[in-house]
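ingest -> validate -> predict -> emit
validate: passed (alphabet ok, no gaps, 253 aa)
predict: started
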Amino acid sequence: MSNSFAGKTALVTGGGVGIGFEIAAALAAAGARVAVTFRSHQPGDDQMKQLVASDGSQPLAIASDATDDAAASKLMKTIENEFGRLDILVNNAGGLVQRCLIKDMDFDLWRSVQAVNTDSAFLTTHHALALLSSPGGRIINIASLAGRNGGHPGATAYATSKAALFGFTRGLAKEVAPDGITVNAVAPGFIEATPFHDTFTTESSKAATVSGIPAGRAGRPSDVADAVLWLAGEGSSFVSGTVVDVNGAQYFG
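emit:
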């Protein structure tokens, strides 16, 4: 495995499970020292062993509420104290929360969905910018195909929050470009073996979705991690403000 990220530090929010964990593991395998945050999916001992960097640097797993301003500030102080720097920020924390049609949705649920997907990215980024390497810093926001096509029934609030990440990515990219920091988003399509679909998608719906993917298979968390690694690397230094769709030709933005 290449040590292309040797000497780099990375933070992956919501990195204890699924796509987030796969991203963190890929960064560690490529040499980065990684920290992951978790709220409901604390990584176990075996997972933490997979997050040890290729040079033996130990990972961090930090319990943190990505929707809380004070928690986000405390998180960055911990990263600074433990790592002394931050090179790569992956805003992965998020979730559907609950399938619910707009006509049935109360305002508290709406705000909860926006908070976990959009507010979390703002708060983490806001507090990270003072620590992020300049030049050379990388911010990667994990959005969703739902932000492109509106998602499945009951996911309009989620789709709205993920579409908001596209605008956040593009606007922030312009703000920090003079500092040599890039900001991009990845929009995964149907990715199997994740808590999202295990919780909110029926087997029949999964099968129907996969049958409509031209690539002929569901995506894997590693497919998303590969895209993130490219955006986090030196080869993408002139790529900023873009959305990389990872969906097997299911949808073109």
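The chain has one domain: 9-246.
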